[in-house]
Amino acid sequence: MKRLHSSFVAILVATTALAGVPTIMQGTAAQAAAPQIEGSALPGSFSSIVKANKDAVVTVTVDERDPGTSGITNDTTPKSGEPSPFDDFLRRYFGMPPEGEPDDGSSAVPHPAIQGLGSGFIVDSNGTIVTNNHVVRNADRITVILSDGTKFQAHLIGTDEKTDIAVIKIDAEHALPTVRWGNSDDVTPGDWVLAIGNPFGLGGTVTAGIVSALGRDLQSGPYDDFIQVDAPINQGNSGGPLLDAAGHVIGVNAAIYSPTGGNVGVGFAIPSNLAENIVEKLTTSGHVDRGYLGVMIQSLDQNVAEALGIDGTDGALVTEVTSGSPAAASGLRAGDVITGFAGRTVGSPHELSRIVADANAGTPAEVGLIRDGKAMTLKVTVGAMPNEDTVVAAEDETYAPTGRLGLALIDLTPQLRQQFNLGADDTGALVAAVDPDKAAAEAGIEVGDVIVAVGTEATHDAQQTNDLIQKSETGSGKVLLLVERNGHRLYVALDAKVG
């Protein structure tokens, strides 16, 4: 049997002892201290919700041959042996191998069959079913078991590894019961939720709890936006629906925090608004096309925000604009802080990535941004997402860091350009030495970094870079540098008062 815990994220959590036990209050004192809760907030029974939805929730069993075989023949099916975004968690926290790998770390031994199970739910009466990508990946055969025990062989419509969503379909001779999508944007912490699924192979199991938090990023994929719940979710619940108090699907159960593989009260679901969009794309074309802007971005900290002359740290700071991209065509520049996209507020780089990915290629969108301390708007046409060593500058010379920042800068020679894999047209100044007690070291500048801009002004050589730095030092005392390291660009704010 397949190790069922490998269908979930298993992450080590620390346990702490309780400092004490609260005293039980009695009589009128307890009544006075207790908050007044409206009766409607505490449902007497979830039976009507369960009755209306349980027949649309299915058990999904998967048979796999040796993980080295090709699996299901489908253009969108992940190839066998391709890692799930959750495999890293299993290795990192428990030393667990990903699905199909041997426990002892030796080469895989062929298995005649590996079996796993999960859950799913019917979203169209024609037999279209939603589940998790990690439930059906690498499968040779997918079997769906309805609530009445009827079995069907399912075929794969499409999968999306980045959001862990998959769509499968069965061919029944009659219309099947379905669930209704809800609006996950309306979900708030404290809302009642129900999970229906197949934990430990016990089909049709229902658990209840509340939403604990929103917007959780497990770093399992670029578009993480999980709903955290305390409704018990266990092995086999993956792919099952998370329902609100109205009986609508507001999430797809996908992961748990657990030191043992069992429920400890911390589960995660993919929001329905994200899942429904992916399901529609998979059902229509069998694959997911994502929007593309063409920028490298980073988050803002207080120092960088002050150096840019803006209030707060919300938004996504552009560090590089890809040549020929929609961003370049719209006039976006490095140093712009994107605060809105297509009518939605952008609070972080991760949020911008999700919003842009949801957009359809070819659609126009307005980009709200702050440039040189002023708010402005640009228009962009969303594109289609493209298919997706330490170097010593000069060993024979010694450079002495100078100035309040503690930097020694040199020009980029043809030899240095080759060492750093830079193009002939790339300009800037190479960091040859850093004073460990000055501002540059405090901010994380390293020998081998290339300073390509000071503030929003591009630099051409070491002399110009030093001049721009000195000019910045006499202002706010904050010096904003655009630094290139290992092919990536990052804004770094230096405080000239340090050291």
Key features of this structure:
six-stranded antiparallel β-barrel; disordered N terminus; 17% helix; single chain; alpha+beta; 11 helices; 499 residues; six-stranded antiparallel barrel
Give the structure's gist in a few sentences:
By secondary structure, this protein is an alpha+beta fold.
Category by helix and strand content? alpha+beta
Low-pLDDT residue spans:
1-40, 66-112, 388-397
Beta-strand portion reads 25-35%
Provide the gyration radius in Å.
27 Å
- Summed over residues and divided by their number, the pLDDT gives a mean of 75
Helical run tally:
11
The neighbouring-strand order within the major sheet is 1-2-3-6-5-4
Shape: elongated
Describe the structure.
41% of the residues are buried. This protein has 499 residues and is an alpha+beta fold. The protein has helices at residues 27-33, 47-53, 87-94, 133-136, 272-285, 302-308, 326-330, 349-358, 414-419, 439-443, 462-473, and strands at residues 57-64, 114-124, 128-131, 141-145, 151-160, 165-169, 192-197, 205-216, 226-229, 241-244, 249-256, 267-271, 291-292, 295-298, 316-321, 337-341, 344-345, 364-371, 374-381, 383-384, 407-411, 429-434, 450-454, 457-458, 478-485, 488-495. A hairpin with a 7-residue loop joins strand 7 and strand 8 (205-216).
Q: How are the elements arranged and paired?
A:
Layout (H helix, E strand, L loop, with lengths): L26 H7 L13 H7 L3 E8 L22 H8 L19 E11 L3 E4 L1 H4 L4 E5 L5 E10 L4 E5 L22 E6 L7 E12 L9 E4 L11 E4 L4 E8 L10 E5 H14 L5 E2 L2 E4 L3 H7 L7 E6 L4 H5 L6 E5 L2 E2 L3 H10 L5 E8 L2 E8 L1 E2 L22 E5 L2 H6 L9 E6 L4 H5 L6 E5 L2 E2 L3 H12 L4 E8 L2 E8 L4
Antiparallel strand pairs: 1-2, 1-4, 2-3, 3-6, 4-5, 5-6, 7-8, 7-10, 8-9, 9-12, 10-11, 11-12, 13-20, 14-15, 15-16, 16-17, 16-18, 18-19, 21-22, 22-23, 23-24, 23-25, 25-26
